[in-house]
Design goal:
A five-stranded mixed beta sheet has the order 2-1-3-4-5, covered by helices on one side. The chain starts with a helix and ends with a strand. The chain has a single domain (23-162), classed as 3-Layer(aba) Sandwich (Beta-carbonic Anhydrase, Chain A), CATH 3.40.1050. It has helices at 5-16, 43-46, 66-78, 93-96, 99-110, 125-137, and strands spanning 31-36, 54-59, 83-87, 147-153, 160-162. It has 164 residues and is α/β, with parallel strands linked by helices. It binds zinc ion. The site of zinc ion has 7 residues, from α4.
Length: 164
């Protein structure tokens, strides 16, 4: 028995009807999305997109980190990205707890000191989103022809609201 048997079994079922072999890795709808790792977010479905349409970068909070910028620069120049959406969401754990609270919770769960681990907590989600959008728009390797928008996804209604 393997800890991953159930998932490997499901993967074999998936592969049985797999028809995407040979597909390229471009963003066929020209879309890149930076969003949270939150399991309440279904990034393709919420934008009416399908497999192959978008490049998706996820992290806690949906923040534009240096790694997100790496992905976006690659997406724009090599993978057909023409529009970029930055999409944090309502009721995100990264906005409702403080850095110290998260460190205390992880510390309690592990029985170890977790104060050295940073989590990138966001104090003001909309202000942070505007900063993140600005970081993408002003990136020297992302041309002005690329459209960049900042949105908040409501995990209770499924609606996205543009804030920048
Ligand atoms: Zn989140």
């Amino acid at each position: 028995m393997n800890d991953f048997d159930d998932l490997l079994e499901a993967n074999r079922t998936f592969a049985d009807s797999f028809e995407l072999g040979g597909f390229d890795g471009k963003a066929h709808a020209g879309v890149a999305l930076v969003t949270c790792m939150d399991s309440r977010i279904d990034p393709l479905a919420m934008l009416g997109l399908k497999h192959g349409d978008a490049k998706i970068f996820r992290n806690p909070g949906g923040r534009v980190t240096p790694q997100a910028l790496e992905a976006l620069v690659l997406g724009v120049h090599l993978l057909n990205v023409q529009r970029i959406l930055v999409v944090p969401h309502t009721r995100c754990a990264m906005t409702t707890a403080s850095e110290q609270e998260l460190q205390e919770r992880i510390g309690a769960a592990t029985g170890q000191d977790a104060t050295w681990q940073s989590f990138g907590v966001v104090d003001d989600q909309v202000a942070r989103l505007r900063q993140d959008v600005r970081a993408v728009r002003s990136h020297p390797l992302i041309p002005d022809t690329v459209k960049v928008g900042g949105f908040v996804y409501d995990v209770d209604t499924g609606l996205m609201e543009q804030v920048d």
